[in-house]
Amino acid sequence: MKLGIHAYAWCSQWSNETLGLIDRVKALGLDFIEIPLMCLETYDAKAIRRRLNNAGLDAVTSTVLLGETDITSDQPAIRAKGVDYLKACVDATAGIGARSFSGVIYSQHVKAAVRRPGADEWKWSADALRAVADHAKPAGVTLGIEPVNRYETYLVNTCAQALELKRMIGRENIRVHLDTYHMNIEEKSFYDATRLAGGDLIHYHLCENDRGIPGTGHVDWDGIFRALAEIGYTGYAALESFVDCTDNMNTWVWRQLARDGDTLVREGVAFIHGMMSKHGLR
């Protein structure tokens, strides 16, 4: 299993000014960095790829859809804009030599919904992602559907729903991206959800229930790592915890969850490495 960390542990927006995080992640002994694609205008693929190659570090990418790119909108023009944006994210991913692109890519993040999604929303999402998957295939990029909690999406909250959307899309380069923070709210069992993902699992966010230091809350880490071992998982897993204050307070972290970011990373990585060793994933 490849262990990494999301760049949002230290920054609120990716740009050439944050390229030094690549070296910082390498110095921590991690395998990869997760780079956000929310602001493609400040994303310099050539500079990132050069820095990754120099550091000998792998990368994955992720994003969320906003209102103007919502592929479950009832307005065709907005859905088309969402498809164009996701295709641009695929190109940005391929441009740095990465092969995994995931996140809330199936509907608007934090959508002000007033009813449950119907058949139209599911079809619009599947149709859009099918077009994006077809665009991604020649570039060797795989898309990961990340279920998130009911307060952040009305469409895909569980692993089972992610697999249903994958079935509707009907493309081989669609996978599932799980996140323990959201699973803590929506899944009945960390172990069962992880086993259900099985060979479709491409990425895993390792977060404590409060997004603090892994191992300090009530997430069932033994169940998670037992399941990962049983499915023979060798893919990506990233810490996605937030402590340092940034301009991106959409992380909704309003109190100090660790002494500082470096403490969170150091203690969190040590805990996860311990769980990997315990369950034979190293």
Give an overview of the whole structure.
It is a single chain. This protein is an alpha/beta fold. The chain has one domain (2-278): TIM Barrel. 39% of the residues lie in helices and 17% in strands. The chain has helices spanning 20-27, 45-55, 76-95, 119-136, 159-169, 180-186, 190-197, 221-230, 261-278; strands at residues 2-6, 32-36, 58-65, 100-108, 142-145, 174-179, 201-206, 236-239. It has an eight-stranded parallel beta barrel with strand order 1-2-3-4-5-6-7-8, surrounded by six helices. The chain is globular and about 45 Å long. The termini are close together.
- Biggest pleated-sheet summary: 8 strands, parallel, barrel
Strand order of the largest sheet: 1-2-3-4-5-6-7-8
- Tally of structural domains: 1
H-E string: EHEHEHEHEHEHHEHEH
- Calculate the terminal CA-CA distance, rounded to whole Å: 7 Å
**Share in β-strands:** 15-25%
> Helix share of residues?
25-40%
Question: Pairing-aware structural class of the strands and helices?
Answer: alpha/beta
Low-confidence stretches: none
Backbone shape: globular
CATH architecture: Alpha-Beta Barrel
Mean pLDDT: 94
Radius of gyration: 18 Å
Beta strand count = 8
The quaternary structure here is single chain
CATH homologous group name:
Divalent-metal-dependent TIM barrel enzymes
**What is the CATH topology assignment?**
TIM Barrel
CATH class: Alpha Beta
The number of distinct helices, counting runs of at least 4 residues, comes to 9
